[in-house]
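User: two proteins, same treatment. go.

Assistant:
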Amino acid sequence: MIRGKQTLPAVRPGASYEVGYGKPPVASRFAKGQSGNPKGRPRGAKSKRPALNEERLKDIILDEAYRDITVRDGGRSVTVPMAQAIVRAMAVNAAKGQHRAQRLFAEMLAATERQNKALADEWLETAITYKVEWDRELARRERLGITDLPAPLPHPDQVKIDMETGRAWIDGPATKEQVAQLEVLWARREEWLREVECLERLLEAESDEAVRAAIEKDLRRTQKTLAIMDRLLG
């Protein structure tokens, strides 16, 4: 039986350096100044430096801002996004008279309203420009007898502008897909109208109370569907 510490042969015969636990062979040891992991972290590591087109910090901020948390609202617990909880806490502190919270909340509110107004003004200007330019173009086509060009979508008559409120909206289809959907609805509407007329004739000719009740039920359901379609079609 061999007693005591066992060692492997040295790298070179006669060398004083012994190979064993904590003593790797000289040939396989890392050279001085050389990293033990020259390739660094594997691809996909979270600490990887972002590419030039990435804004990882923004993604992190947005993830945290819209992460749901549970807060107390009166006597109950509610789940809201982190951003909403922060704004609510700021508003509550402002209402309690904390000057810093009042200043921050007022600045945030003013900035939000400025941005909303800027977007509304831009949309209003776009709507007015679109309506005026297409009215001129359609008038030119009519004057020259041009009839083979496609109509604009949306049609300028469907661009509604309320100059008192500064509101602009589109009252009609704005894309070819929406036009196709409206055409389908109009076709279905004609079918439902014919169905109503048919049920009314059946009801007028029927004398059996049980059958009349069934027809009336179908008629009410069909009329309700038709009313919904009329609201969709404007």
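Protein 2:
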Amino acid sequence: STIPISKLPPTSQERLVSSDSKTILYLAYGSNLSAETFKGARGIKPLSAVNVHVPNLALTFDLSGIPYTEPCFANTKYRDPENDPPKQSDYHKDRWHKGLIGVVYEVTPEDYRTVIATEGGGASYEDILVPCYPIQPGGKTVDPHPSGSPFQAHTLLMPPEKNFKRRTDPSYAQPSARYLKLITDGAEEHALPSEYLGFLYNIRPYTITTRKQKMGQVIFMGAWMPLIMALFGLGRVLADKDGKIPDWMATLMGFFFKVLWTTYDKIFKPMFGDGERTISKGEDDELGQENRW
């Protein structure tokens, strides 16, 4: 039987400072915060967990997904903790300026391979080591400059220069309500600081508001989804012992998503409307949904 994700034992101090352990410390910050994703869809069985603050990283949503359905996914980027002043960004998802908040799971090498394989087999992210500061569950606020001694953990990051899914305006797209809920559910399960939860709750999801968008979604998914499923299925079959796919497969995926998004930009967006960001509903073309921005 598996342990509920919120009941995982805290990772021991000995493990946090060990450099020769047989287990791997993996920092999750997106949908892998959620038990539904991490233990359900991915089938990972973490051994322990600790909430962390990572001042050197920031949460982004600049990995493009699928227009009209999953416009973007979480990513992270390097930041300078000494030069990242708060500002009222037009984009709610850019308003957090205290560094990345997440959960470090202790996992087996086999489970970490599954993490890599189910995150695109290295085509979407790079595996990096980052310093993490443990924080207590259930806290209220986040100190921009954490105290204590950090430990090293692996995480997955797609740098801008290698992000073949990055859009011209990387903050324009809104994540789906489904995807956002996985992140907020996971943040609640782990009792991340309430200040950070407030930030997550304020991120606005992508909502279809017109009949044209709904039609575009149906046609787009019908045309592309079988190919996407086949491509990711092939990637899992070809993944090596570390969960990574061959370079030629990564190149093929990059080309595939470039064509997918070009099709959206040139054909679907002009014809069916915005598939990345909620638009105000028209008077004569509404779906009975509230106007959200």
